[in-house]
Amino acid sequence: xxxxxxxxxxxxxxxxxxxxxxxxxxxxxxxxxxxxxxxxxxxxxxxxxxxxxxxxxxxxxxxxxxxxxxxxxxxxxxxxxxxxxxxxxxxxxxxxxxxxxxxxxxxxxxxxxxxxxxxxxxxxxxxxxxxxxxxxxxxxxxxxxxxxxxxxxxxxxxxxxxxxxxxxxxxxxxxxxxxxxxxxxxxxxxxxxxxxxxxxxxxxxxxxxxxxxxxxxxxxxxxxxxxxxxxxxxxxxxxxxxxxxxxxxxxxxxxxxxxxxxxxxxxxxxxxxxxxxxxxxxxxxxxxxxxxxxxx
Length: 296
What we know:
By secondary structure, this protein is of the alpha+beta class. It folds into two domains: 9-179, Prim-pol fold (2-Layer Sandwich), CATH 3.30.2250; 191-293, Zinc finger, CHC2-typedomain (DNA Primase, Chain A, Alpha-Beta Complex). The protein is 26% helix and 19% strand. The chain has helices spanning 9-18, 47-54, 82-92, 97-105, 175-179, 200-204, 210-219, 273-281, 285-293, and strands at 23-26, 64-68, 74-79, 108-110, 115-121, 128-130, 133-136, 141-144, 156-157, 164-166, 230-233, 236-239, 251-254, 259-262. Strands 3, 4, 5, 6, 7, 9 and 10 form a seven-stranded mixed beta sheet that branches. The chain has a four-stranded antiparallel beta sheet with strand order 11-12-13-14, with no helix packed on it. Strand 4 and strand 5 (115-121) form a beta hairpin. Helix 8 (273-281) crosses helix 9. The longest helix has 11 residues, at 82-92. The radius of gyration is 20 Å and the shape is globular.
């Protein structure tokens, strides 16, 4: 993956698209997405779409830029501070010529406190929080140049026009760092079992037919939208929430019953697959039914 020199947010977004990586607009001097962004985890925005966001005179002309991780295996090592980054650099220098060159030449960004190291990984990678380091992979995004952090510091490319590719995450990090990964927090209670699934879909589906709604619920699994979901119990799964900057999986899924929600409070009520699809894609429930109808 080869980057080109860019100066504006529009140029940067178009350059990332050329590499097959989606970007999204964030609020000015913010890490918060300026629009529903989950669809761009699965759909690459067109050049025209990018220009409607970032071109001069457009609504998000001065927006920050979010690079969506997971595309083409894109993974970002987010070092919290320069001390952690220096530890990693020291380790890579002892691991052979390829890793030494990767650490020196792969695309890197100076952040408000530390460094982002961009790599592409062939194997599926989960988001991790390690000592002094977050691993950002599918299901999240990172602030990218020429964005401005909320504290006023600008994200600046350091070195490298290439994003180096490796087979596994284990090639990039010391074994003791990965062995220290804590297990996902246990979910000992599930209050949602006492709550009926959100029934707004029926209200929106008048004229579509209740049979269509039921068929969608039976044929379209919520797990389709969370390929990295981890099973935590009989029929229960947990995944990174697509509705906030989630680092510790907080989105619960009750697969057999077909409803889901966020432990952190992003969802006021449990959602079925129609509600979920609508919110992921910025649609009404009725529009979601029409799009999902084709699957059944």
